[in-house]
Specification:
- The structure holds two protein chains of two kinds.
- Chain A is 75% helix and 0% strand.
- Chain A is globular and about 55 Å long.
- In chain A, α7 (97-123) crosses α8.
- Chain A is mainly α.
- By secondary structure, chain B is of the alpha+beta class.
- Helix content of chain B is 24%, strand content 31%.
- Chain B is built from eight helices and 20 strands.
- The chains are: A mainly alpha, B alpha+beta.
- Chain A: This is ABC-2 type transporter transmembrane domain-containing protein.
- Chain A: It is a multi-pass membrane protein.
- Chain A: Residues 59-232 form the ABC-2 type transporter transmembrane domain.
């Protein structure tokens, strides 16, 4: 399949202009930074979780930002197009499924990366392995973009979209907290395989004494989630194309 | 273009329709909301039909120029945006955000999506409905240019809207699908019948509806039209069958201020409010009735009408 960069670029530029003038939505760029400022001093004081260091507080900031920024913005971008019937019109142009998704995804991807980079700086987190850390963050951003797309495709208006991210918030952001209840409810061990829990594990790996396997396992699980959800979203988008 | 018949509750809602779309001509179908939807439901093939629906909205936060740039890029037409803006007559609104435009202009800008469509057939639902006079003229011009390369089908519930830019108009209703005679014909070939001078002038026009004979005083009548040989007398938005021919009616009603404005129309001049000029060669008369009725006016009859009205 040929992907026209011009068309994907046109969607990117159009969405950037729309997003930057929609203050209700662009304010979500500030969420990671506000969260980071709030939790900056809380790391050691929090003293809970798998590692009683700043790592758990930092992963809390990250996992919340993924939903509040990446997922919400992506869902709203798609839902708003549906609300105004412009998505249907877009499907009648030569632009393909992939180009539309790439154009929209790239915008959210760039914004999330920049906002999260600032959050990381504010938190002052030092990862064990920069490469693994960056890879995990980027994969997670893609994962939440795709989750946002699915939410967007299921909602009819932007109001719907902001509500539809709640399930994502519950399952992904809340998953790391499930570990605290594991002893009472063994079934909650499943939650350990959520991408957000895996991110917590990855961040908790100390500066010394880790193996490549320690790093790879969370990365691979996050990758599997990303690939799986991406396939779901492409299938959903194409089904929507047929419905119209 | 083909439409499959649709039955609902044993009733034929949509007959089987075969349209022969010739290039250089726009086809209009005048029908109701339900049938319009049924027609559009059958036009799902995105590679052949560009479907513009009336509820199409626009990216509200972009400016007009940004939107045109976007449409130009996404469809890879790569034309110069400034010349496009000139062509669309949108130069003054260049920097205005779409949400700040007037409703008519906003719809007009939205309708420009049709211009960028790559499909061979363009289907527009109620394109003129929200537009003001000036925007209608611009759209008519653009659609005329588009029809040189593409087939255009306009779905509307308003005959007046269809007449603005359609060359062939069909009506689709519970009686079926049939063409309307709106073409600007040359002078009537029909020989004017020598009418016997009747001693008693019958003042009433007798019509039939549901097996009842209804008599109308001529001033009550808005206009009379001939559809496929049957004469319909329009009174207060309702229509009634009449057994007389148009020529007979014309003679009978001459003294009551009626005027044969078209081969298949007689209009009550007392009820004419406005002469609409679409182009140099196409005109309509708007009537001053409850329903917004519009009657075509032949070019050849315009001079005669002007003389009658002393204008």
């Amino acid at each position: 399949m040929n992907i026209s960069l011009q068309r994907a670029g046109a969607i990117f530029v159009k969405d950037y202009k729309e997003f930057s003038r929609n203050y209700g939505l662009s304010i979500s760029l500030l969420f990671p930074i506000i969260l980071a400022l709030l939790f900056r001093g809380a790391g050691p004081a929090l003293g809970i979780g798998p590692s009683a260091s700043g790592a758990f507080a930092f992963s809390l900031v990250l996992n919340t930002s993924f939903v509040l920024l990446t997922c919400l913005v992506q869902a709203c971008l798609i839902a708003e197009e549906k609300e105004r019937n412009t998505l249907r019109s877009l499907m009648m142009t030569p632009a393909t499924t992939l180009e539309v998704l790439i154009g929209k995804g790239t915008l959210v991807f760039l914004m999330s990366s920049v906002a999260l980079a600032f959050a990381t700086l504010i938190m002052g987190y030092k990862p064990a392995s920069i490469g693994a850390f960056v890879a995990a963050i980027l994969l997670s951003i893609i994962l939440y973009i795709v989750a946002g797309m699915i939410c967007g495709l299921f909602s009819k208006t932007s109001l719907d979209a902001s509500l539809s991210i709640l399930p994502v918030a519950f399952t992904f952001t809340a998953a790391p907290w499930g570990t605290f209840l594991e002893e009472d409810y063994p079934i909650l061990k499943v939650l350990d395989y959520a991408p957000s829990s895996q991110l917590v594990h990855l961040l908790a790996i100390g500066k010394i004494g880790f193996t490549t396997g320690d790093l790879l396992k969370p990365l691979l699980i996050i990758l599997a989630w990303t690939v799986g959800l991406t396939m779901v979203s492409v299938v959903l988008y194409q089904r929507r194309l047929k419905d119209e | 273009m083909q439409f499959q018949p649709i039955y609902y509750d044993g009733e034929l809602l949509l007959p089987k329709i075969e349209l022969h779309m010739a290039s250089c001509q726009a086809i209009g179908i005048v029908t109701d909301v339900k049938r319009k939807q049924l027609l559009m439901d059958q036009l799902v093939d995105h590679s052949n039909y560009y479907l513009f629906q009336a509820q199409q909205a626009e990216y509200m936060r972009l400016t007009v120029e940004e939107l045109i740039t976007f449409l130009n890029k996404i469809t890879e037409r790569n034309e110069r945006v400034t010349s496009l803006m000139d062509y669309f007559a949108l130069k003054e609104e260049r920097k205005v955000k779409i949400k700040d435009l007037s409703p008519s202009k906003r719809m007009y800008v939205t309708l420009m999506r049709v211009f960028f469509a790559h499909q061979p057939t363009l289907v527009l639902e109620e394109p003129y409905f929200y537009l003001e006079e000036q925007d209608r003229r611009q759209l008519k011009r653009i659609l005329e240019d588009l029809s040189k390369e593409k087939q255009i089908l306009i779905l509307t519930s308003n005959l007046e809207d269809a007449m603005i830019s359609c060359d062939v108009i069909y009506r689709l209703n519970e009686f079926g699908f049939y063409p309307l005679d709106i073409r600007d014909s040359e002078e009537d070939k029909q020989e004017v019948l020598e009418q016997d001078q009747a001693n008693i002038t019958i003042q009433k026009i007798s019509t039939k509806r549901n097996e009842k004979v209804i008599l109308f005083n001529p001033p009550e009548i808005d206009y009379i039209e001939s559809i496929e040989g049957s004469i319909l007398v329009h009174v207060g938005g309702e229509n009634y069958d009449c057994a007389l021919t148009l020529t007979e009616l014309e003679h009978r009603l001459l003294n009551f201020g009626f005027f044969r404005c078209h081969r298949s129309y007689i209009v009550n001049l007392q009820k004419v409010r406005e002469i609409i000029t679409w182009t140099k060669n196409s005109y309509s008369l708007r009537l001053n009735t409850d329903q917004d009725a519009v009657v075509p006016l032949s070019r050849s009859k315009l001079q005669e009408l002007k003389a009658l009205l002393n204008i």
